[in-house]
Design brief:
alpha/beta; Rossmann fold; globular; binds pyridoxal-5'-phosphate; Ser/Thr_Dehydratase; lyase; Probable D-serine dehydratase; TrpB-like_PALP_sf; pyridoxal phosphate
């Protein structure tokens, strides 16, 4: 298709694009064709509720052991965007603050923590010393810690997935290794090591870190690799966000229907988090939600895979794109196959964004709302300026990370953003 060819040419030139997915099919049909059993989304939510007594004790900073983030209206940011980009934004604008999610401070905690907990539950049940009816806080006892310490967990990560899996696995007593790509920030590695996690660093990108982690677990029956490129459990963990979002919207007196549409803007790396959230959102809100992925111009792997039909076989370097971006969570060269299939039918579109723009958005958000996000997360804030909407539209920019970002790193990013803003 001509439009797709034009978008591809722009991607190769590192120009920002806005792409609408013409292969999008009706939400219900799209969900059916993924063959993912929707019952599993609800089962996953039930599992997290069973774990709440344990989480409450291990991480008292959570609210009753439920790991959830606020949804807040950001009127001042909306005004700042309108003024800076000289565009009017129809509808209301909200921030989904996964940047403030307790324990690991990013959207990746939704999937990562869920999969570690599910694995722990499986092992505990298999031991014969535990049943689904027990109080789950028993899983932090010395005897279960000892049991878990005989098992290994590994993951490949650009940083945030590693943080969530490392923190939760080590809290339960697992022997955990995180394979980190070159993009991962030093502070994330230091934090993990301080919690007793083994961190292995690579000079290559994320795909290599995942490949190595997977290899090292192969053939070891006590080793479990959490596979960000293929894991259905990670995917289900992310999807639960949509169930909770429905309740949060309802609490704010907002209903999503034919007259009141919802637009989600979701930063994308390998695709698990935005893919899972999209799946959950289409399940809950049907065709009344539109889900847009966001990737850096230097790492647009999901869009490249969809445009070329090569899905996970694509690597940005095949198109001379360097995969170098300050948005470390989004620095991924090849997308997840599982999510490419889901995205092809369920995602409504995507925009790509330059690093410079993300820094500006981070600074505008701090100045207007006093909210802290990391560079990757700021990518979601441009969406409402790019897409057509009406006065009833609810825009939600998904702030995917930030809580654990050290203050000095954050202030440096803010200063960079301010400089870019002043250069105009
Ligand atoms: C802050 C942040 N936002 C978004 C993402 C994208 O998630 P995914 O790689 O599942 O697409 C990541 C991934 O690590 C991240 O760290």
């Amino acid at each position: 298709m001509k439009e797709n060819r034009e978008v591809l040419e722009k991607l190769k030139k590192l120009e920002p694009v806005l792409w609408e997915n013409n292969d999008y099919i009706d939400a219900a049909a799209g969900i059916d064709s993924t063959r993912i059993d929707i019952k599993k989304v609800y089962e996953a939510e039930d599992r997290l509720i069973r774990f709440a007594p344990l989480i409450k004790k291990l991480f008292p900073e959570t609210v009753d052991g439920i790991i959830e983030s606020p949804l807040v209206e950001i009127q001042s940011m909306k005004k700042s965007l309108e003024s800076y980009y000289n565009k009017s934004i129809e509808g209301k604008m909200f921030l989904k603050c996964d940047s403030e999610l307790k324990i690991a401070g990013s959207v990746k905690a939704r999937g990562g923590i869920y999969e570690v907990l599910k694995h722990a539950e499986d092992i505990a049940l298999e031991s014969g010393k535990f049943s689904l009816q027990d109080d789950y806080s028993v899983l932090m006892s010395e005897s279960f810690k000892e049991l878990f310490s005989t098992y290994k967990i590994a993951v490949g990560s650009t940083g945030n997935l590693g943080l969530s899996i490392g923190i939760m696995s080590s809290a339960l007593g697992f022997n955990v290794t995180v394979h980190m790509s070159r993009d991962a920030k030093r502070w994330k590695k230091d934090l993990l090591r301080s919690k007793g996690v083994t961190v292995i660093e690579y000079e290559e990108d994320y795909s290599k870190a995942v490949e190595q982690g997977r290899k090292q677990c192969t053939g070891d029956p006590k080793a479990y690799f959490i596979d960000d490129e293929n894991s259905i459990d990670l995917f289900l963990g992310y999807s639960i966000a949509a169930l909770r979002l429905k309740t949060q919207l309802w609490e704010l007196g907002l209903t999503i229907d034919e007259e009141h549409k919802l637009n989600l803007y979701l930063p994308c790396g390998v695709g698990g988090a935005p893919g899972g959230i999209t799946f959950g959102a289409k399940l809950i809100f049907g065709n009344n939600v539109k889900c847009y992925f966001v990737e850096p111009t230097h790492a647009p792997c999901m869009l490249l895979g969809l445009l070329t039909g090569r899905y996970n076989k694509v690597h940005v370097r095949d198109y001379n794109i360097d995969n170098i971006t300050e948005a470390d969570g989004l620095a991924v060269g090849s997308p997840s196959k599982l999510v490419s299939m889901v995205a092809e039918e369920l995602m409504d579109g995507e925009y790509t964004i330059q690093d410079e723009e993300m820094f500006k958005l981070l600074a505008l958000l701090r100045d207007s709302e006093g909210r802290k996000v990391e560079v990757s997360a700021a990518a979601s804030l441009l969406g409402p300026t790019l897409l057509q909407a009406d006065e009833n539209t609810i825009h939600i920019s998904w702030a995917t990370g930030g809580l654990l970002l050290p203050e000095q790193e954050y202030l440096n990013a803010y200063k960079t953003g301010k400089q870019y803003l002043q250069q105009r």
